């Protein structure tokens, strides 16, 4: 798999493969090993560098000119290989193009512009909670996380009902494609020929409900701020980035609470803690784990010289559990000072959808807490085997009135 592997200069090498099913299912063991090995590690199997600790990950994200995004934020270097889809105009772009587009989309996804959605999300959350209490035992990924997010988020974008599982299939492709082209990638790309055109069709103005978030992107075309060609690709970003991430965040939150019951007890006693608890979920079980940057020049970092046009791997899950930064890093503690976690990245490429994702989580868990709902595991959890995301595929749970 190595691309044209450059020799490591001053970096310790490791032959750990972050993308085996075993290492995907237990990421924290190899994160720990590689953080201990050094601040910059050469992954010999892939011919790329990895910055496993918080400090270097932070510095790399900050220096977007040296560590660029336009060559892709996956393992594939767009300077050397053609990407599987037209690059994202936000994620896989650099200033100045990125800056202009981000300003427009950022306004659409800003907290003030999203406020109008809260009441509707609350209605959906309460209807869902009624169903959960009625059912008792559920598979919470399907019956809670997917049920809620696949209802409220596409509605907010203005996507018609029907076939919404395609959104999950597409997100799975997009995020797995950030990894190497392994069996995980091949497997999820099987449906690409049907699902990718379905997504692009949903991004056309005529298929977006007036007044919702997708339509608002097209309003910016009318205002001359973005071009006609950019609009559907920007709407595509909503559908690429907003579905799986939030579903797994909800699942990771449910699981973190169910396995740390004292933390849920705190939230139930004081629903105002939901917001800070969610930040701790993003630190402790970061849904978006692995991504890459590409060097635009030779650069020295932590005593290691990285040549230009090389991939550098980052892992937010590893940075978010670096004991150099966090006390009791492996403990889920909603009372900790969680500021500075990089679960949503930061800087010019910080998650642009974080306000709507936070809103979804905030509404769901606030309503659960306000109604004093309890939930517990009724069987073993099963995590997803995924090149990029940390999430759950099976989460058997019982919901009851606490
Ligand atoms: C953050 C993110 C993940 C996946 C896709 C995109 C963004 C996009 O903009 O398409």
Notes on the structure:
There is one protein chain. This protein has 17 helices and 13 strands. It is of the alpha+beta class and 402 residues long. The chain has a single domain, classed as Cytochrome P450 (Cytochrome p450). A 6-stranded mixed beta sheet has the order 1-2-3-9-6-4. It has a 3-stranded antiparallel beta sheet with strand order 5-13-10. It has a two-stranded antiparallel sheet with strand order 7-8. Strand 7 and strand 8 (304-306) form a beta hairpin. The longest helix has 18 residues, at 118-135. The relative contact order is 0.18.
Total count of strands: 13
Q: What is the ordering of alpha helices and beta strands?
A: EHHEEHEHHHEHHHHHHHHHEEEEHHEEEE
**Number of structurally distinct domains:** 1
Helical coverage, percent range:
40-55%
CATH superfamily: Cytochrome P450
Q: So how many helices? A: 17
CATH uppermost class: Mainly Alpha
- Beta content: 5-15%
Which sequence of strands runs across the widest sheet? 1-2-3-9-6-4
Overall geometry comes to globular
CATH fold type? Cytochrome p450
Structural class: alpha+beta
* Low-pLDDT runs: none
Overall mean confidence score, pLDDT: 96
- Straight-line distance between termini: 52 Å
What's the gyration radius in Å? 21 Å
Strand count, sense and barrel status of the largest sheet are: 6 strands, mixed
CATH architecture: Orthogonal Bundle
Bound small molecules, deduplicated: 3-methylbenzoic acid
